[in-house]
Amino acid sequence: MNILIEKYQLKKLGEVYHNFSPAGFTAVICLSESHISLHTWPEHKIVNLDVYLSNFKRSNDETVINLFEAMQKYFQAEIVQQQIITR
Questions:
Q1: Is 33 contained in some domain?
Q2: For position 36, which CATH number holds?
Q3: 86 in a domain, yes or no?
Q4: What is the maximum span of the chain, computed from C-alpha positions, in angstroms?
Q5: Per residue in 45-84, pLDDT tens?
Q6: In angstroms, rounded to a whole number, what is the distance separating the alpha carbons of residues 20 and 54?
Q7: How many domains does the chain have?
Q8: Are 87 and 55 in contact (CB under 8 A)?
Q9: Domain presence at residue 85
């Protein structure tokens, strides 16, 4: 994730990661632009991803799409439901 944050010139403010037993994890990364959250349920083959970036100082619409696609590719995820809110 840090590589993508650097690639798209985002500013990380803090992060929390939690591994669940026997599997799965939650990650929340606070950004000056807002946040990225990721929750996994490997036993159900589910990944829930939230990429929220404000457009206050620059348009981040393309960055959101690129981050989502990179993580979708990493997890080899099939999109079951997707909601895009343009700001």
A1: yes
A2: 3.60.90.10
A3: no
A4: 42
A5: 899 999 999 988 888 999 999 999 999 999 888 888 888 8
A6: 30
A7: 1
A8: yes
A9: no
For residue 34, tell me if it sits in a domain: yes
Q: What is the dihedral of CA 38, 83, 34, 11, to 10 degrees?
A: 70
What are the pLDDT digits (tens) for 57-66? Answer: 888 999 999 9
How many CB atoms lie under 10 A from the CB of residue 58? 11
Domain extent for 47: 2-75
pTM over the 0.90 mark: no
12 CB burial (10 A radius; 0-12, 13-18, 19+): middle
Tokens of 44: 């159900």
Q: What is the DSSP string of the chain?
A: -HHHHHHTT--EEEEEEEE-SSS-EEEEEEETTEEEEEEEEGGGTEEEEEEEE--SSS--HHHHHHHHHHHHHHHTPPPS-------
